[in-house]
Specification:
The strands form 6 sheets. Strands 3-2-4-1-10-9-11 form a 7-stranded antiparallel β-sheet. The chain contains 18 helices and 23 strands. Helix content is 31%, strand content 25%. It is globular. The structure holds guanosine-5'-monophosphate (5GP), iron/sulfur cluster and magnesium ion. Guanosine-5'-monophosphate is lined by residues 246, 284, 287, 316-317, 349-358, 391-393.
Length: 465
Amino acid sequence: CGIFGVTGVHDASNFVALGLHALQHRGQEAGGIVCHDPIQGFNSARRFGYVRDNFTRADVMKGLPGPIAIGHVRYSTAGSKGATAIRDVQPFFGEFSMGGCAVAHNGNLTNAAALRRELIERGSIFQSSSDSECIIHLMARSIQTTLAERLKDALRRVEGAFSVIAMTRTKLIGVRDPMGVRPLVLGRIGEGWALSSETCGLDIIGAEFVREIEPGEMVIIENGHLKSHRPFAPAPSRFCIFEHVYFSRPDSSYGGRSVYEVRRNIGIELAKEAPVEADLVCPVPDSGTPAAIGFSQQSGIPFALGITRNQYVGRTFIEPTEQIRNMGVRLKLNVNRSLIKGKRVVLVDDSVVRGTTSRKIKDMILDAGAAEVHFRIASPPTAWPCFYGVDTPERSKLLAATMSEDEMRDWIGVDSLRFISLDGLYRAAGEADGRNPEAPRYCDACFSGDYPIAPADKLKEGFEM
Ligand code: 5GP
Ligand code: SF4
Ligand code: MG
C-alpha cells in the first residue's frame, strides 16, 4: 500500500490526492483521504479505483477541506481478498474522549489475528476485515491521555511490518516499525510538512526531501514543529529489499541511492554472474527495464524493446485474483515481431513467482520466431511467502518452492534461466561484501526464508519456517 500525509498547507487534501497518485503503483484497488478543518471538523472520502478517477472530482474534493490530511492507496494483502469492501478502505478513523484520530497503515501485522480475537473477546466491535483496524481498537484500550501516546501504546502491541501515518486535529504523525521494513520519508513544503511512502510522492507536490523516518522512529509534527520519539526497543534495521527490486518506483530513492540505480546495478551483476551469447537484451516491461539496461551495458549485447506494454493496464501483480492475473499477460504485453525474428533473445524480468507470466512470455517470443530465449531474473528465486505487506501466494504456489533452477527452466521451457544471487543483489543495493549472514542489512525472507519477524499468526496456522 501507499500512504501520504501533509500539514501546514491550504487545502491539504489536494496535496494528498497528488501524493497518492504518485504512489498509485503501491495499490490500485481503492483509496481514501481523511482531513481536518478547524470549522468543518473531520471529513473523509473512500473510493474504489484509481486516485485520478476519484480524488480529482470537484464534488469529492470540496468535501475535504482543511490544512491537514492523510491518505492511503490500498492493495489487499491482509483482510478480504479480491472483492475489497469499502469498509476495508483506509485511513481508519476513531473518535476518542480527547478527539478524533485517523490512521493509515502500510505493511502487514503478523499478530493481527491473535490481537483481533483478544480485542473482540474484550468487547471491541470491528468494522472491517483489515489487520490495520487493530491499531484503532488498541488505542481505545490505552489509558494514556494523549492520542499520540495511545498510538505508541497500540504500536508496541502489534508485531510485523508497519509504516503508519496518523493525524489528529492538530498533529501529523509518522512511524516506522522497529526494523523499518516498509519505507516512509519526510519532506518540507513551504512552512508545512509532508510524509510519503516514497520520495516520488514528495516530488509531485514540489516538497523538498528532508530525510527518511528512521526504523523505530515516531515523528510528531504540530504547529509547524517536528519532534522525534523512540517508542520501541532498538532493533536491527531490515528494510525490504524487494522495494528495490520491484515494489518502489524507479525514480524514488532510499539511503541516497535511486531505485533505478539499484535495478541497473542488478542487471550489471546479472550479466557478470550469468553471461550468455545473444543478439538482443529485452526487458519484460516495465519492471524489468532498468535491469535490462544494466545487463546490456555490462554485456555489450544491444538493448531493444522487444515487448511492448499496453500503458492502460495495471500491474499484473497487483490484480487480486489468480484468474485476472492469468488473463493479464496478453492484455498487457505484446511482442514486436520484426525485431525478434531469428534472434537469440535475453529477456530480463524482475521476479518469477508462479512462473505463469514467464511461460506465456516465452510462448509469445517463440511465436514471433525467436531463435533462442534466455531468461535473466533480477531477484533470487522467490521461494517463501511475504508476511510483511507484499502479496505473494502461499508457498505451494511458488515455483521456486518446489523446483530447482534447472527444473524451472524446463517447466518454463526456455534455453536458459538464471537468477541473481542473494549476494549479487546485496552488492547491487550497495553492500560491497554482499549479504552478511550474521546481520543482513535487508529483509530478504521471500528469497532466503530468513524471517526477521516471526510470523506469529501463520505459525499458529501451521506454517513451517
Ligand atoms: P508469475 O511468475 O507469478 O507469473 O509473475 C511474475 C511476474 O509478475 C513478475 O514480472 C512480477 O513483476 C509479477 N508478479 C506477478 N504476481 C506477483 C506476486 O504475487 N508477487 C510478486 N512479487 N510479483 C508478482
Ligand atoms: Fe520484502 Fe520479501 Fe521481506 Fe516481504 S519477505 S518484506 S517482499 S524482502
Ligand atoms: Mg513484471
